[in-house]
C-alpha cells in the first residue's frame, strides 16, 4: 500500500515540476495515445503500480497544463500546492461530511473555512454557508432557497405543498446573466422565456436606470464578475430597489466576489453585502483543487428549510444543523478542507495579493497587446481581458494558432458582435515573465500571415 501511494505522490510532484516546460495544450500525439486506455474490462484485478504508471505515462501528457502559469482560458484556477497536499491527506481520510458523527474533523474544518470566507468577503454577520461542488450548484442552492423564502413571505408553504399550485414568481436577470444561473433557474422550474431581462451597459453591467416595476414574489439575480469583461452589476442600487418591493437579491460571484478581499479592487463590490444570497467558487480564484464552491445565505433557516431532507430514524440531527441539511447532497467528500488549507496558507494578505497580482498581470496583457497595435475591447477592471487582432476571422485564426503553438492557452468569445480572444488571469502561478512570453507568442502568431 505505501509503495503505490508514494509512487503516485512522486509522479504527481514530477508532473507539476514539468509544467512550465511543456506545451500548455497536449500534443495531438498525446491525445491519440489515449486510445491505449480503451482496453476490455479486466477479468482479474491488476497490480496497483502498473495502473498508476499507466495513468501517469498515458494520462499526464494528455492533460491541459492549466495547473501551470500560462493557461488563460475560461476562468480556471491552478490549485495551490498546500491545498493540494491537504486534499491528498483528506483523500486518505476519505471522510463523509454529511453528518458530524461520520467525521468530526471534516465538519469542524468546513465550518471554519466557511466562517473565514464570510469574514474575508465581509458578508453580513450570521450568514449560513455550505460547501458545494462549484458555483453552478451554489447558484442552484441559493435560488432554491430564494424560491422557498419568497413563497413563504406570500403565505405559501413550498416544502409542504410543492410547485404546482404555487403563486407565480417573477425572476429578474441581467442581459449578461451567466448560463450557469439560467441552468440553475431551469432546474428549479423557471423557464427561460419567462425571465424578465434588464438591459446592460457597454461593459455588461445591469442598468440601474432600467429596472422594471416588480410586485409579488420576486427573485433578482445579479452578477459580480462578468466572464468577458470582469465588470460588476451595481448590487447596492439593485438591492435598494428590490428590497423596497420585498424581493430576494442573489449574487452570482463565481470569481468576482474575491475582489472584496483585495483593498484596491474592493470598491467594485461595494454594497454586495446587502444581498440575500451569494454563490462563489473556490476552484477559480482561490486556486483550490477542483471541485469546490460555496454558497452563503443571510437567512440560514431558509437554507435549511430548502435543502433539509425530512428526517429518518437512523440519521441523527443536531440543533444548529448537519452539513447535509444545507446542500443538495447527502454523502460527499470534505471539500472544505482544501479551502481551509488555502485560506490558512494565504491569510488575508495572501488572498489580497493573489487577486491584486492577477489584476495587475491582466492589465500588463492589455498594455502590451495595445502597444503592439491590437485592440482591447473592455475596460480592464479585474482579471479579464478581451482582445481583437483585426477582422473576426483574423482573431479566430490567432486564437486557434496560439492554442496550437503551445506557449499559452486562451479561449475565444464574441463581445458586442465582435470575435475576441479572451484572457483570464486566475492562476497563482502566473508571473510577469509568463505574461511577456505569452504576449510574445501572440504577437509572433498575429504577424505570421
Ligand atoms: C464559472 C462561473 C460560473 C459557473 O461556475 P462552475 O464552478 O463552473 O459551476 C457561474 N457564473 C460565473 C460568473 C462564472 O464565472
Number of strands: 11
Described by strand count, sense and barrel closure, the largest sheet is: 7 strands, mixed
End-to-end separation in angstroms reads: 55 Å
The mean pLDDT is: 97
* CATH architecture name of the largest domain: 3-Layer(aba) Sandwich
Stretches where pLDDT is under 50 for at least 5 consecutive residues are: none
Structural class of the secondary elements? alpha/beta
Heteromolecules bound: pyridoxal-5'-phosphate
Provide the CATH topology of the largest domain: Aspartate Aminotransferase, domain 2
Strand content: 5-15%
Q: In which range does the helix fraction lie?
A: 25-40%
Rg value: 23 Å
Global outline:
globular
Q: How are the strands of the largest sheet arranged? A: 1-7-6-5-4-2-3
Q: Write the H/E string, N to C.
A: HHHHHEHHEHEEHEEEHHEEHEEH
Count of domains: 2
Oligomer: single chain
So what's the CATH class of the largest domain?
Answer: Alpha Beta
What count of helical segments does DSSP give?
Answer: 13
CATH superfamily of the largest domain: Type I PLP-dependent aspartate aminotransferase-like (Major domain)
Amino acid at each position: 500500500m505505501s509503495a503505490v501511494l508514494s509512487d503516485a505522490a512522486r509522479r504527481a510532484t514530477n508532473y507539476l515540476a514539468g509544467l512550465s516546460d511543456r506545451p500548455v495544450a497536449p500534443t495531438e500525439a498525446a491525445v491519440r495515445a489515449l486510445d491505449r486506455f480503451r482496453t476490455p474490462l479486466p477479468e482479474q484485478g491488476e497490480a496497483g503500480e502498473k495502473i498508476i504508471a499507466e495513468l501517469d505515462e498515458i494520462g499526464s501528457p494528455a492533460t491541459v497544463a492549466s495547473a501551470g502559469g500560462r493557461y488563460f482560458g475560461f476562468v480556471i484556477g491552478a490549485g495551490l500546492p498546500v491545498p493540494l497536499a491537504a486534499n491528498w491527506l483528506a483523500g486518505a481520510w476519505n471522510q463523509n461530511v454529511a453528518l458530524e458523527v461520520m467525521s468530526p474533523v471534516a465538519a469542524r474544518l468546513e465550518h471554519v473555512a466557511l466562517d473565514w470566507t464570510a469574514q474575508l468577503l465581509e458578508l453580513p454577520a450570521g450568514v449560513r454557508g455550505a460547501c458545494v461542488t462549484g458555483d453552478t450548484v451554489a447558484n442552484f442552492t441559493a435560488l432554491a432557497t430564494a424560491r422557498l423564502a419568497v413563497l413563504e413571505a406570500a403565505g405559501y408553504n413550498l416544502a409542504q405543498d410543492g410547485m404546482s399550485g404555487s403563486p407565480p414568481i417573477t425572476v429578474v436577470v441581467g442581459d449578461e446573466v451567466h448560463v450557469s444561473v439560467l441552468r440553475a433557474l431551469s432546474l428549479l422550474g423557471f423557464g427561460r422565456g419567462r425571465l424578465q431581462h434588464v438591459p446592460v451597459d457597454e461593459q455588461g453591467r445591469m442598468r440601474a436606470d432600467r429596472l422594471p416595476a416588480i410586485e409579488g414574489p420576486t427573485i433578482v439575480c445579479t452578477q459580480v464578475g462578468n466572464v468577458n469583461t470582469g465588470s460588476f452589476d451595481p448590487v447596492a442600487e439593485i438591492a435598494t430597489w428590490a428590497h423596497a418591493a420585498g424581493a430576494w437579491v442573489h449574487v452570482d460571484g463565481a470569481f468576482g466576489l474575491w475582489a472584496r478581499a483585495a483593498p484596491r479592487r474592493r470598491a467594485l463590490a461595494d454594497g454586495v453585502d446587502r444581498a440575500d444570497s451569494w454563490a462563489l467558487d473556490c476552484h477559480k480564484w482561490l486556486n483550490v483543487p477542483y471541485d469546490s464552491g460555496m454558497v452563503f445565505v443571510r437567512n440560514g433557516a431558509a437554507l435549511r428549510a430548502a435543502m433539509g431532507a425530512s428526517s429518518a430514524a437512523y440519521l441523527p440531527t443536531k440543533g444548529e444543523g448537519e452539513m447535509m441539511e444545507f446542500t443538495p447532497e447527502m454523502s460527499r467528500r470534505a471539500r472544505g478542507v482544501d479551502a481551509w488549507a488555502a485560506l490558512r496558507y494565504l491569510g488575508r494578505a495572501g488572498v489580497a495579493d493573489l487577486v491584486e497580482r492577477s489584476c495587475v498581470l491582466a492589465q500588463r496583457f492589455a498594455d502590451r497587446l495595445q502597444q503592439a497595435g491590437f485592440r482591447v475591447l473592455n475596460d480592464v477592471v479585474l482579471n479579464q481581458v478581451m482582445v481583437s487582432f483585426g477582422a473576426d476571422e483574423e482573431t479566430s485564426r490567432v486564437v486557434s494558432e496560439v492554442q496550437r503553438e503551445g506557449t499559452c492557452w486562451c479561449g475565444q468569445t464574441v463581445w458586442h458582435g465582435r470575435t475576441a480572444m479572451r484572457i483570464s488571469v486566475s492562476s497563482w502561478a502566473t508571473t510577469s515573465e509568463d505574461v511577456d512570453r505569452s504576449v510574445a507568442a501572440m504577437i509572433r502568431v498575429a504577424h505570421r500571415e
